[in-house]
Amino acid sequence: MAELLRRLLRTPQGLLGMLIVGLILVIVVCGPWLAPYGPDTMAPRLRYRAPSAEFLLGTDQYGRDILSRLLYGARSTVILACLATGLGTLAGALIGTTSAFLGGRADEAIMRTIDAVLSIPSLLFALLIVNLLGKSSFSAVMAIGIAFTPGMTRVTRSVALAVTKQDYVNAAIARGERGGYIVLREMLPNVVAPIVVEMTIRVAFAVMLFATLSFLGLGAQPPSSEWGLMVAEARRFMHLSFWMILWPSLAVALVAIGFNLLGDGLRDALNPRT
Amino acid sequence: MSPSYLVKRLALIVYTLFVVSLVVFGITQVLPADAAVMLLGENATPDALAAIRDKLGLDQPVGVQYGHWLWGVLQGDFGASLRTGQPVAPVMLEALGRSLTLAVLAIALMLVLALPLGIVAALRRGKLADLLVSIVSYVGVSLPEFVTATLIVLMLADWLKLLPATGFVPLTEDFWEGLAHLALPVLTVSVILIAHVSRMVRSELVDVLHTDYVRAARLKGLSRRSVLFHHALRNALLPTITIVALDVGYLLGGVIVVEEIFALPGIGRHLIVAIQTRDLPSIQAGALIMAATYSVVNFLADLAYAWIDKRIQYG
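Output (C-alpha cells, whole complex):
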C-alpha cells in the first residue's frame, strides 16, 4: 500500500490528482466552517457584485455570497457523486463476478444483455430513471448508479475472468464451497484493484452527470447550492454578472479533472509495465 | 468477413434492440406503480385517469401492452403525443435529422482537428507540444457539456458578438445563416470528442512507432514522413474507428444538453420537453430512437473494422 502510494505520487498525474482531490475532500469536510457567510444569507442591496475583498467570488441574484454557496454545495455535489459511483460499482462488481464465475452460456447471455443495455447512453438512461422516480437528488443518485452498472459489470467481468482460472478458486470449488461464497469471499477481493481505478475515473463522470442532471432541472432542486444547479440558475443572469456562472462551472471542472488525474495516476501505479 | 459473422452480428443487433425496447418500455410504463397517476399527478379527476388508462391501454396485462406498443413501433407508429395530440414518429424523425446534422458536423470537425493534434503529440513525445496537447485534452475531457457551452457562449457570443447564441435555421432554408446557428453547438459537442480522440491517436501512435516493423522501415532508409504515412498511421488509426463509434454514445448524451442550451429543436430537446411534461409516447419514442441510432452506428463500425482489418475473424 505504501509502495503503491509512493509510485502514485511519483507520476505527475498522480501527484496533481492527489493534491486536487485532497483539496476537494478538505472542502467537503470543512466547507461550512470555512464559508464566510451562510449559503442562503441574502443581501438585496449587494446583488450581482464582482469579486472583491468583501465577497471573494462576488454575489448572485439574491446577493448571496458565491464562495460560501460553493463551499456548502461541495457536499451535495461530491458526496452524492461518490455515492452514485459506489452504488453502480457494487452492483456491477456483483453481476460481473457472478457472470465470470458461472461462465459458459449463462455468462454469454448475461454479457450480451449487458452490452445491449450499454447501448443506451448513460445520460439518457439517467433521464429515464429520473422520470420514473421524480426530480430529486436521491433519484439522480439512483439514476447515475443504475446507469453506471452495465459499464462496471463489463470491467469487473473481464478482470474476474482471469481470476476464475486461479488455483485458489479451483481449490474452493474442490472444497465444495457454495457459489455465493466463492464469488464474494474468493473472487471479489481479488478484482478490487482494477475496479478502484475504474471507479475513480467514474467519479469524475458522476460529478459531471450529476451536475448535468441538476443543470437540466432534474437533480438537486433550489435553494440547494449544488454546483450544476448554480450554473443553471446563473444562466438567466449571465448578462448582469458572468462571475456567477464562471465560478460554479470551474468548480465542476476542477473536481472532474482532479478525479480523472487521480484515476490515471492510479492506473499507472498499479500497472508499472505500461 | 465471413457470412456467419455477419449473421451473428445481425442477430446480436436485433437482440440489442429488443432488450433496449424492453428497458425503455419497462422504465416508462411498467415500473411506475400507476402510470396514469404519474402522468396526470395526484389531483387528477377519476374521469381523466380513466380516459388516459384507456388511451394508453394501461388496464390491460403488461404483456399485451408491450406487444401492442412493439407492434406499433415496428410499423413506425409510436402513438400520439399526450401534449399535442400529433403522431410522435414524424416529429421525432424530423428532430433526429437535425440532431444528426449536429453530430455529423461535430465528428467532421473532430477528425480535422483531433488527428493532427494526436499525431503531433506522438511525434514530439515528451516535448512542449505533447504536454500542451495532453493538458488541453485533459481539460476537454473533464468539462461537462453545459460548462463548455457556457464558456463558449460567454466568449464567442457575449463578448466578441461573433455568432448567434441560440435558435435554429434549417440549412436548406438559408445555408450560411443555418451554419452560423449551428457553429456554437457543434463546437461545444466536439470539444470532448477532440480531447478524447486526440489522446487515443497519440497513445496508439506512440505504441506503433515502437514496433519492429516501423524500426525496420526506418532502417531500410525510408524517410520519416513515408514511414509515418505508409506504415505507422494505418495501424494506429484502426482502433480509432471503434473509439469514434463508442463516442457516439457520449455524443448522443451531449447532444441532449447542447440542444437544450442552444434551443436547437433536435431529438434531445424534444426528449427533455417530453420528460418535463410527462409525455409518455414521446419519451418512449425519443429514448428508443436514440438508443437504436447508437447500436446501429456501433454495428456499422464493427463491420467497417472487420472489413478494413482482415486479421479479424469473429467466430
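Chain A has a mean pLDDT of 82.
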